[in-house]
């Protein structure tokens, strides 16, 4: 698992989700952002809303 996280950080993936048994039981995700910040125990619905908000705020033009 640590190698996958390290590889994603190297490629500067914007969001990494870490989902283990505990997160599945609680319907949560552990979110790691590209800047190194982490949010543990984020409800899955809240993460989906975050992505939808990010998508709306993006410009369709260059």
Task: Itemize the secondary structure elements and their pairings.
Layout: H1 2-10, E1 15-18, H2 21-26, E2 28-33, E3 38-43, H3 44-57
Antiparallel strand pairs: 1-2, 2-3
What does this structure look like?
This protein is an alpha+beta fold. It has a single domain (2-57), classed as Anticodon-binding domain (Rossmann fold). It has three helices and three strands, in the order H-E-H-E-E-H. The protein has helices spanning 2-10, 21-26, 44-57; strands at residues 15-18, 28-33, 38-43. A three-stranded antiparallel sheet has the order 1-2-3. Strand 2 (28-33) and strand 3 (38-43) form a beta hairpin. The longest helix has 14 residues, at 44-57. The model has no long low-confidence stretch (mean pLDDT 86).
CATH class: Alpha Beta
- Overall shape: it is flat
Count structural domains: 1
- The helical percent reads 40-55%
> Major sheet: size, sense and barrel closure?
3 strands, antiparallel
Give me the CATH fold name: Rossmann fold
Quick structural gist:
47% of the residues lie in helices and 26% in strands. By secondary structure, the chain is α+β, with helices and mostly antiparallel strands.
């Amino acid at each position: 698992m640590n190698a996958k996280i390290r590889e994603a950080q190297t490629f500067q993936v914007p969001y990494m989700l870490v989902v283990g048994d505990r997160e599945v039981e609680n319907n949560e995700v552990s979110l790691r952002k590209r800047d190194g910040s982490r949010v543990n125990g984020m409800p899955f619905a809240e993460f989906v809303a975050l992505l939808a908000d990010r998508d709306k705020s993006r410009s369709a033009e260059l």
